[in-house]
Structure formats: C-alpha cells, structure tokens
Design brief:
alpha/beta, globular, Rossmann fold, 2 domains, about 350 residues, 12 helices, six-stranded parallel sheet
Length: about 350
Amino acid sequence: MPVFSQPDFDNHEQIIFGSDGESGLRCIIAIHSTRRGPALGGCRMRAYASEDEAVRDALRLSRGMTYKAAIADLPFGGGKAVIIGDPRTQKTEALLRAFGRFLESLDGRYITAEDMGTTVADMDVVRRETRFARGFSDGSGNPSPATAFGVFNAIRAAVEHRLGRGDLRGVRVAAQGLGNVGYRLCDYLAAAGAQVFVTDLRDEPVRRAVREFGAHAVAPDDIYDLDVDVFAPCALGAVINDDTLGRLHATVVAGSANNQLAEARHGEALRRRNILYAPDYVANAGGLIDVAYENAGHSQQTILKMVESISETLKRIFARADAENVATSVIADRLAEEKLRAGESATIAA
C-alpha cells in the first residue's frame, strides 16, 4: 500500500499502524504536524471499504486538524485516528482498551477525542489505558454542542457578508446530515427563525426534526437541488464535487463536515459561481476548542465565548478573499500556514 505517493500525503510527520489480535483492533494514526504542540484530533471508527480508504481518510482529516488548530490559535498540531470496523457491531471494551494502550505507547505525540463512530462513553474506556485522551463524561463531555454552536456562528457571519442580513429570520437552510452536530445546528437555526430543510440516511432524526423544529424533510439526493440561501453539509466530506456543484442553488456553503471540498480546486469553482464558502476547518473548530480547553478549568460559558469568535475569523477571511479576488479556502489556508510558519500559539491557562 503506497503512502508517500498518496495524493493526500502532505509531508505528514508520522503514520502509525496498530493492531491487536485478541480484540480485533486495526487502527491508523496519522500525525500531520506537531510544530505548534502535540497533535490533537478525534478517533473515527468506520467500516471502511478498504485499507486504502482508511489511510486516505486519516491523511485528509489529520491535515485538516493541523490547519484547524492553527487558525484557532491553539497550542496543538493536527492528527487523526481511524479504527477500521463497524462501530455498531465490532466496538467492544477490549478493542477500546487496546486502542488506549496503543495510544499510550506514542507518549503524548497524539491526543485523541471522540469523533464519528465513537462517543464520550468510549473515551471514558480509552482513558483507562492512556493519559492522552479527552472529552470525558466528567469533563466537558461531548464536543458536538460546541461544534454546532461554532457552525451556527459561521452561518450567521456568511449570511451577513453575502446577504447583508443581521439575523437569520426567514433564511432558508438545507442541512445535510442529522448526527450529533447537524441536529443541534438545526435547533439553533430554528430558534433563530430560519426555515430549515433536512435530510439524513436515517428516518428517525428526520421525523424528530420535522416534529420539533418544523423542518421540511427532503430525500437525501434532493438536498443539493433546493432553492435555499445556505447549504450546510453536516455528514461526510467531499460533497462539493464536480457532480454536485452545478446543482447547488445556495449562495452560501457552511457546515460541520470535514473536507467538504472533494478537491482544492472546488473552492475556486464555488467562488466563480458566486457561492460564499465558509472553509470547513474554520467553521467547525468549536469542538476542537472545547476539547483543547477541557483541562484548563474554564466554564462552558467561557469556552462558548471563545467558539463565538469563529465568526470574526470568518469575516476577516471573507474580506481578504474579496480584496484579493481569490477563493475563501485559499485565504484560510494562507492564514493557517502563516501561523504554522511562525510556530507559535497562545497558551492555554487555567
């Protein structure tokens, strides 16, 4: 399996493969950068179609975590763990504890937290074997609410910039995915007066959203075609691609999914279609901020105030992109890379 020639390999510092025969653990940890501090990123468990797909996911996600931590001015680098397996049928305490021991063997180069396919309860199990896990039931817990709050503020900033609107009353938002983050985001949007259209591969959360938020249910493949103001991808990545770009009628793309652009060139393609893109790793940084400050003694209210600053970061990105006539994704990358070259970040103090 070639790694260095992978299109998503970006001078990663380390890629570690771990296994445990007794528990069935098969995992990959990609450490993209520790220039600003230990690599921090979630642990994703998924029934990948192949090992190559798992490696690609780890590489893309870990790079995104580096940029996310840098642009949020956190003293961490970027990393990601993926566990190959179906979390509904193959996740066991033995597997999680084996993962914790593997993580401990890295001696702090990588710190993990929950992600797709893992939970706060899982992190409670992992920490029995390692000092290098975050997001516990007796700490800040699930980072999803902070992520959703950050994306909500990203949407407000983008709507203000593109539509000249200071509020979201009557703004039409198409939310793709109703997981922990997507569902909470819809709660924020509905409370702010937005008109919400929702889709998910599962029927139950869609029915709940219709019942609780007055949302409009949409078939999964129809979500791209809606005449809305905002398209909010909140599921898997690569949803902005050659097939979907021409179908979008939204003037803003802002959501919680990682790696929303299938390729970097799709950021410019959005700009050419006059669609304002809130770069994903900026918009969805709320969960990382929450996890980063978990052990620092800050109140949840204080942490959410920090998350709220995502809107100010995006406003700077939008203004600079307009001034330079380039894609917002390009400006976000430049800002993150400037911070990486400086190699310095704010410290987290209690």
